[in-house]
Amino acid sequence: MAEEGIVKIQYLVSLCAVLAVGAALTAAPVTVLGKATEKTPGSPRGLQEQGKGTSYAPVDPQEDIASVIDRMKTAKPEVMKRQMDLLKERYDLANRPAKDATMSRGKPIQEGIRVALPKGMTWEKLQAMSPEEIRDKNALPGGFFPLPHPNHPEGGMVFPQFHIEEIQKQEGRDLTRFDLDYDLPAHLLPEFPPPLYLTTRPDLGDVSQGKLVTIDNYYEFFNGILNPKQLEGLRLLVTTFPQQQFNQTEDRRTVRPSRGVTCFECHANGHTNASTHLAGDVRPQELRHRIDTPTLRGLNIQRLFGSQRALKTVEDFTEFEQRGAYFDGDHVIGTKKGANILERGSQVHFMAEFQELLDFPPAPKLGIDGKLDAAKATASEKRGQDLFFGKAKCAGCHQTPYYTDNSMHNLRVERFYKPRMINGRMASADGPIKTFPLRGIKDSPPYLHDGRLLTLEDAVEFFNLVLGTQLAAEEKQDLVAFLRVL
Question: 328, 355, 382: which is the final residue of a domain?
Answer without folding.
Answer: 355
